[in-house]
Specification:
This protein is α/β, with parallel strands linked by helices. The protein has helices at residues 15-27, 43-46, 67-72, 82-95, 185-195, 221-229, 231-240, 259-272, 276-279, 289-306, 310-316, 333-336, 383-386, 398-401, 433-454, 463-478, 512-524; strands at residues 6-11, 31-34, 102-103, 108-114, 119-124, 129-137, 159-162, 177-181, 200-205, 212-213, 329-330, 342-346, 352-355, 359-362, 366-368, 371-374, 389-391, 420-422, 458-461, 530-533. Bound molecules: ligand NA7.
Length: 540
């Protein structure tokens, strides 16, 4: 008989882990959350760099499981800053007395499944071991930072930081010369803020992005009241949306409009800002290449109108389709390049060679500096699980199993790894995260309930279901869509941003609504594709 410490262990106390803990409590499942950080927050705990804020609109960047919580929390602005989201998640944890079930400063380093005991043993960096029946990974899709292996970093005499591991106490860049490497969503948020304080900021850009103005603004009380009154409908719309947003459609495709009408629509979308530009301007912006190019040309025109230096403006203009890389939202990004103290350098044509004692050396230039900031992205979706030594039924590790890319069923289960569930796992949905994790947590809860009703305690994705799911995702990636072009432009969502990583679709490219339909079909068919059984009863 194996003694269980908990029925379920959840790894990670960000949005996903907190949501899952709530679900487990509702089901009466004893659970513990193991969290590497010193507080809740996940992404929001670690990414404290200046300028960090949501790219999702505040009203749907929230937990939807409690009507009371939705009514009592007031977001201040349309795109809340890191500090506000962190404060919100701390509030959720306190409001629902979650901290008593969370062990902080506890990094999970290994987990192995024992078939005879039908139990997982979870080991931590500090040397503790916990035994549980169900292991639920809520480790986040963008949690393991990717730092290119530039030679010489250890020689650098200045300070260096990762946006994804920003020190709690902050960094003082006043009067310093700063080099920023990376112009994805993190770099785009950071650069205008750093530029306000630093003596000089040199931005090393490899690929320009289409940066859409966020149009951040305070939320007024009338809007707040209106949303709170109809929150159920807000969530229903978000679950039905491609990216989990409460957004409508344009109701029109570009070809139905005259050039003058197209122009007016683009200007209106640009004024609304954020992802509304993508989803509410034309319904075919991410599906029809001609419409996509219309939007791309429009943004390039805006860049040239904002950025005064012609050479800099041209360097900032992308040439690939909009949405082949995840477009960041800007808060004065292009405007920052009009400052005297900001310089843009092209490290696509002149790549970074090494970090020296004094700064960053490219093939043709030396950028002396006091501070280097790496905003170089993440080992997305798979990095968190493959950096833990997770071993399944026959001792195979996830790292070995996923050598050629992740293989899962629904992004929730893996064959050979019984009773392991993933929230926001690879091959699930990439959309507005609170909506995704709410859905997957509830889905896992439904699976556990079905098992309990049937007197079962073991569930495992079948190899056939995993094979079919992978084939379906591959087929989606082979379709001639804009998202599927991510591989050519080095997008993280197909693993193409990390050298040596397998290029496979890391999420369900057909959108959240399609993903939910697939999961619902599986649930309706009594969790078909998962083998379920009862093991000899274990003592607790
Ligand atoms: P991203 O979007 O992956 O951006 C990483 C940036 O770092 C990107 O501009 C990369 O250029 C750049 N990078 C990476 N390696 C190098 C090297 N070797 N040399 C120069 N530049 C390099 O990560 P973020 O953290 O900004 O955003 C991730 C997600 O978080 C975002 O999509 C949102 O969903 C939230 P590249 O484009 O590869 O040429």
């Amino acid at each position: 008989m194996t003694q269980l410490d908990y029925e379920a262990i959840v790894v990670g106390a960000g949005f996903g882990g907190l949501r899952m803990l709530h679900e487990l409590r509702e089901l009466g499942v004893s659970a513990c959350v193991l969290e590497a950080g010193a507080d809740v927050g996940g992404t929001w705990y670690w990414n404290r760099y200046p300028g960090a804020r949501t790219d999702s609109e505040a009203f749907v960047y929230a937990m939807s499981f409690s009507h009371e919580l939705l009514q009592e929390w007031d977001w201040s602005v349309r795109y809340p800053a890191q500090e506000e989201v962190q404060r919100y998640l701390a509030y959720v944890a306190d409001r629902f007395d979650m901290r008593r079930d969370i062990r902080f400063d506890t990094r999970v380093v290994a987990a192995s499944y024992d078939e005879a005991a039908n139990a997982w043993t979870v080991s931590t960096q500090a040397g503790d071991c916990f035994v549980c029946r169900y292991l639920i990974s809520a480790t986040g899709l963008l949690s393991v930072a990717y730092v290119p292996d530039f030679p010489g970093l250890d020689r650098f005499k200045g300070e260096w930081y990762l946006t994804a591991r920003w020190p709690n106490e902050g960094v003082d860049v006043s009067g310093k010369r700063v080099v920023v490497i990376g112009t994805g969503a993190s770099g785009v948020q950071l650069i205008p803020q750093i530029a306000l304080l630093a003596e000089h900021v040199t931005v090393l850009q490899r690929t320009p992005n289409y940066v859409i103005p966020a149009r951040n603004a305070p939320i007024d009380q009338a809007e707040r009241i209106a949303v709170k009154r109809e929150y159920d409908a807000v969530w229903a719309r978000a679950r039905a949306h491609f990216f989990g947003f409460d957004m409508g459609t344009a109701g029109v495709v570009a070809a139905e409009l005259t050039p003058a009408e197209q122009r007016r629509a683009l200007e209106a979308g640009w004024e609304k800002g954020g992802f509304r530009f993508v989803f509410e301007t034309f319904d075919d912006m991410t599906t029809d290449p001609a419409t996509n190019e219309l939007a791309c040309a429009f943004i390039r025109e805006k860049i040239r109108a904002i950025v005064r230096d012609r050479k800099t403006a041209e360097l900032l203009c992308p040439t690939y389709p909009l949405a082949a890389k995840r477009p960041p939202l800007g808060h004065g990004y292009y405007e920052a390049f009009n400052r005297e103290n900001v310089t843009l350098m092209n490290v696509a044509s002149d790549p970074i060679q090494e970090i020296t004692e004094r700064g960053v050396r490219t093939a043709c230039a030396v950028h002396d500096c006091d501070v280097v900031i790496f905003a170089t992205g993440f080992d997305a979706f798979t990095g968190a699980l493959t950096s833990i030594d997770v071993r399944g039924r026959d001792g195979t590790s996830i790292k070995e199993k996923w050598r050629y890319g992740p293989r899962t069923f629904l992004g929730i289960g893996i064959d050979g790894f019984p009773n392991l569930f993933m929230i926001s796992g690879p091959q699930s949905s990439f959309a507005n995260i609170p909506v995704v994790v709410d859905y997957t947590s509830r889905w896992i809860g439904r699976a556990l309930t079905a098992m309990r009703t049937a007197g079962e305690d073991r569930i495992e994705a079948t190899p056939e279901a995993v094979g079919e799911w992978c084939d379906m995702l591959d087929a989606l990636m082979r379709r001639p869509t804009i998202l599927a072009q991510g591989e050519q432009v080095g997008s993280w969502f197909v693993g193409a941003n990390v050298p040596g990583k397998a290029h496979t679709p890391l999420f369900h490219l057909a959108g959240l609504s399609a993903y939910i339909k697939d999961c619902e079909r599986v649930a309706a068919e009594r969790f078909a594709g998962f083998a379920r059984s009862a093991s000899p009863t274990l003592a607790r």
